[in-house]
Amino acid sequence: MARLHIPLLAVDGGGTKCLAILMDSKGRLLGQGRAGSCNYQGVGREAAVRELREGVQAAISDWAQQCGIQDQPLELDIEYAVMGIAGLDTAYDRSIIQELVQLALQPLPVQIRQLVIENDGFAALTGATGGQPGILAIAGTGSIIFGINEDGTTARAGGWGHRVGDEGSGYWIGKQAIIAALRAYDGRGEVTELGRLIVAYLGLGDEEELFNWTYGPDYAVERVGELSRLVSQAASSGDQTAKHILTRAADELFRGIRAVVERLTMQHKPFRLILQGGVLQNDSLVRQLLIHKCEQWAPYARSDQAQGEPIHGVTTMGLSLLRSTARKEAKD
Q: What is the pLDDT of residues 189-206, one digit of tens each?
């Protein structure tokens, strides 16, 4: 059996996909693989293990095929495995995810010297800012805010999930739309087009069927998140209730950004403001309101585009660790 050295295995284990990359010490791509979400909170522990394993195995297979050794028995000696994994929010999560990662890697032909596991959002932050001072606000189906200052100190706000958080997210906007539709149906709220749009989108008959749907088996976080597009549509047509929901979404996201900026003492310092996720990339009203609020409060904030995808943040971390190890070995 051939035993081969690979400097870096990098994994972006986000909420929608698992991307695994093998690299040499100079950052050159050796192989890559892709699988589904490995967020155990979203897909369950068994599926998380399976998808992570499939992603890493696909990267190994891709590399072996490029080298023409796909039919040979292999064992890879990997110096660093650096992973950004969704769902790593608490010390309890870390213990669970470390166990799941070990289970995923156990059957694979790999020996890993150093394993580093971080929250996928911090990896995305590093990728987006290039390690420079900045705020990354993500509002897709869920929402979370990450930040890093000039000292490399990081902070986060939000990301507590749809049951108790995710304010300003697609799910939160969709949920507020359902609430507004039912209030209008009762006569307790302003007249709005949201009820008609939501009922039609879900293929229901009326608001009473909408109520039954919210407590039925077809209710899903992702499905509610899709309703945020209807809110944007209604707001563009002048629906005041829809505009109010989107304004509140921007307010909630700003609160998260303000909390992180204050903890990192960056209000009066230059930093990049990077907005990602479907809500902030597709809804111009929420995006414009949020940028305006941030720039008024933090005058040196600058709205900018991300420098790289989340996997870029993971590889940046891994290559930095490799360089640090090489320098230490050179001194010794």
A: 899 999 999 999 999 999
